[in-house]
Design goal:
The protein has about 160 residues and is mostly helical. The protein is about 75% helix and about 0% strand. The chain is built from 6 helices and no strands. Helix 2 packs antiparallel against helix 6. The N terminus is likely disordered.
Length: about 160
């Protein structure tokens, strides 16, 4: 009995170690890692920039598809989930790090523009607007969104270079 009990304990510990090493869930292979509690401000800004950039690129690809296809393909209209984690700075943090405050403002602006583009793309998918109108609108929102995100990326690169 004692030998069997220790074997069970070892088996449970081994399974727990395997699950921990694998991340727990088999469906988490494409999930964004959870933020660490001690994650730096620049890392959080960079992660927000990255998820916004991914969505903007997806929308840009949709826009290019609409240039040649009057009806959007079904796979381009499938709902996408973006794990955006906006960065919020209080007044004191903004005062202490004005560069970070400007980066957050640029990303918030880009997020607003990307949200407008996403909504317009959804209207095109519902056949409420033509492909030509969708292309014009998406381009008018995504171009300045990418410019704002590029400003943030440059500022982050400069901060890394100074370290």
């Amino acid at each position: 009995m004692r030998r069997t009990m220790s074997a069970r304990v070892l088996l449970v510990l081994l399974l727990a170690a395997i699950l921990t090493a694998c991340g727990g869930d088999a469906d988490d292979s494409d999930a964004t890692p959870a933020p660490k509690m001690d994650e730096s401000l620049d890392a959080r800004i960079g992660r927000f920039d990255q998820t916004l950039r991914e969505e903007a690129t997806w929308l840009w690809d949709n826009m290019n598809t609409a240039r040649t296809n009057p009806q959007p393909p079904a796979e381009r209209c499938a709902e996408q989930r973006w794990d955006h984690k906006p960065v919020v700075l209080d007044a004191e943090a903004r005062r202490l790090d004005p560069t970070a405050a400007r980066m957050v403002d640029h990303l918030d602006y880009a997020a607003t523009l990307i949200g407008q583009a996403r909504d317009e793309w959804a209207r095109h998918c519902r056949n409420e607007i033509s492909a030509m109108n969708a292309v014009a609108f998406l381009e008018s929102r995504l171009t300045p969104a990418f410019k704002s995100m590029n400003i943030v990326r440059d500022a982050l690169d400069q901060r890394v270079a100074r370290e």
